[in-house]
Every structure is written in structure tokens, then in C-alpha cells.
Amino acid sequence: MRSVQLQESISRALGELVGYADELRDLDQALGDGDLGITVSLGAKAVIEALEALSDDASPTEIARTCAKAFANANPSTMAALVAGGLLAGSRGWATLDDVSVADAGAFARLAGENIANRGKTQLGDKTILDAIMPAAEALEAAADASSGLDEAIGAARRAVEDTTPLQSRRGRASWLQERSIGLQDPGATAFLRFLESWRAANDASAPADTVTARS
Q1: What is the pTM assigned to this prediction?
Q2: Which of 15, 93, 111, 160 would staple 132 via disulfide (CB 3.0–4.6 Å)?
Q3: Judging by beta carbons within 10 Å of its beta carbon (0-12, 13-18, 19+), is residue 38 exposed, middle or buried?
């Protein structure tokens, strides 16, 4: 996926993602301060606007850094800062690329997840966005092609959301609930899952009719 296609795909996916804002708000109200829906909406809109102003010959690294800056500047939330830091970390893995493969996307997600883990002082099993990112990254890195890789990544992220729901939250505001967080779906992991689903929906919608039929 070259630069123009990458920019368009990101914008389409984020346009889909804002449709989940109410769900993410409700999940975050149960476990946090309820601002995740706003964070995602404002961040997505800011990124779309920033990409519209970016030149068509921007490199994948420049695209990722533009996304990071726009998302961080859109609002001051902790999640926005973590996502922006993850995007910047991922962009360093694309420094020499002109064309992004599914494996490159997986490597990006892995670097982003590692940065989030370090900055957020979290690990797998703490019931955070990290639990969805890392298995999805692994699925993308191992994929034979983009379509199957995305499907596998979505499946991995969905299982992470389901598997962590019975756990107690151990980081962030959610950890303040202690045992009361058990049985509640993590909003951060869900947000990442919804982004992957939005990417698939947006790309299916933009593909030729015969391509969509072949994948359905």
C-alpha cells in the first residue's frame, strides 16, 4: 500500500470509527471517566483533516507522524497521549519504506504496543488496549495476504476483548473499581477492535463490487 492509498484508507477507516463513539463512551463510563468516545471522535476528525492537507508524496513515516500529532493535539486525554506515542513509535519502523505490506502493518502495531506498554506501565493481562494490539500485530505479521491478515487480526482482537472481560482491570481509572471491574468490557481494547473492523468495512466499501463479493 503506497502513500496515497494509505492516506485514503486511514481517512475512510476513521470516518467509520466515529460511528462507534457512543458505544465507547458507554463502556468508558462503566470503567473510566467516560471520555473515550470524545477522544476517538475528536482525534479521528483531526487526523482526517491533517491528512487532507498532507501532500500526496508524503512517505508512510510522515503519514504516521502526521496522524500522531493531529490525534494528540485534538484533546488532552491520557488515551490520546498513549495512542500518539504508539503511532510515533510505529512510524520509526517505516523509516525506509515507500510501500507498506501487511507484515509492515503488523510490525508497526507491535512497536506501537510496546511503546504503550512502556509508557502506560502495563502488560498483557492487565485488561487494557494492549491486550488487543499485541495478538492483532502477531496475526498481521504472520499473514499470507492483506485480506486474511486483517480478518485474523480482527479475530485475535475480538478474542482479547472477550477473554479479558472476566478479568479485573489493573491499570488506569478502571483499576480503581478493583473487583467491580470484573465482567466489564475494556473500552480501550474495544476501541482498537472497532478500528480494525472499521478499516475492513471502509476498504470493502471502496473496493470494486466483484472484490467485495469474493471476500464476503
Answers
A1: 0.91
A2: 160
A3: middle
| Residue 53 counted as domain residue | yes
CA distances from 186 to 7, 46, 47, 126, 211 (A): 29, 24, 24, 10, 34
User: 98-128 pLDDT, tens per residue?
Assistant: 999 999 999 999 999 999 999 999 999 999 9
Longest dimension (CA), the chain: 51
Residue 63 counted as domain residue: yes
Q: The C-alpha cell of 56 is what?
A: 500526496
Task: Report the number of distinct structural domains present in the chain.
Answer: 1
pLDDT tens-digit series, residues 76-88:
899 999 999 999 9
CATH of the domain at 17: 1.25.40.340
- 40 near 17, Cβ under 8 Å? yes
Note down the domain range covering 15: 3-203
Asked if residue 208 has pLDDT above 80, the reply is no
Q: Is residue 211 part of a domain?
A: no
In a domain, 212, yes or no: no
CB 122 within 8 A of CB 116: yes
93-98 long-range contacts, Cβ below 8 Å, gap at least 24? Answer: 94/59, 94/60, 94/61, 94/64, 95/61, 97/59, 97/60, 97/61, 98/2, 98/3, 98/59, 98/60
